[in-house]
Amino acid sequence: MTSGVLRATGLPGPARPVTTGRPQRWLLVLALVVGAVVTADVLNRGPLERLDLRAAEVVGGWGLRDSAAFPFVWSVTQVGGRVTILAVLAVLVGYLVWRRRTWLPLVRVLTALALLTLVVYGIKYGTGRTAPAYPGVFLFHEDGASFPSGHVANAVLMWGVARWQAVEYGLPLAVQRTLWVLSVLGPLVTGLAMVSLNFHWVTDAVVGGAVGILLLGVVHALDAAVLSRWVRARGRQTA
């Protein structure tokens, strides 16, 4: 079953659709506006900087980085870690390539990964914002790579791509639901964990989420316009 929407059966009440998670236009516009406004505020050291400083002061008082809870909270940050997500994607994509005889899932993942690396690190090194562990909020600093949060952007984009593949290729409903949860809650818990450990400012996490949504929309658009057509054309040539 390769439809973009699958309906859960055997559940009480109306059937619940499991969608591929392609960002709707309103969400893309919202992500663009939020990302642009917050970035402009950060670059101009606007009022959101005071919110960042206050939040960092509060969570710093919790002392999580020096407590017994640190290993647990740090492990939560890895929900958005590249190694964690790529390990899951390697299994998922490997299975689909083997069972469905198509390279399209791999092409989608590699495209998303390339875009994520170029865009996120381009912004990081372009702004040079340091993490809350530094005494103050520095911009254009040689050691600054805090803005935006790569973990949050990674969680939005890559869990979104994983969910997309699970739904499109009709994997078991339990797999689809698990990846749906990770694509929705993964970025949220990752951002909260990063901020609670003072690894990132609040605005880092917000813009990381916005960037992830926009990149997911870009990958979906590229797939519709280029990737799917190219892979299918290659498949016909090989056949």
TrEMBL record:
Where does this protein come from, organism-wise? Blastococcus deserti
Instruction: Note the coiled coil stretches, chain numbering.
Output: none
Annotated membrane-spanning segments are 26-43, 79-98, 105-125, 145-166, 178-199, 205-227
InterPro entries, sorted: PAP2/HPO, PAP2/HPO_sf
SMART domains from the UniProt entry: acidPPc (SM00014)
Q: What is this protein called?
A: Phosphatase PAP2 family protein
Sequence ranges assigned to domain Phosphatidic acid phosphatase type 2/haloperoxidase in this UniProt record? 104-220
An example of a Pfam family matching this protein is: PAP2
**Keywords for this entry?**
Membrane, Transmembrane, Transmembrane helix
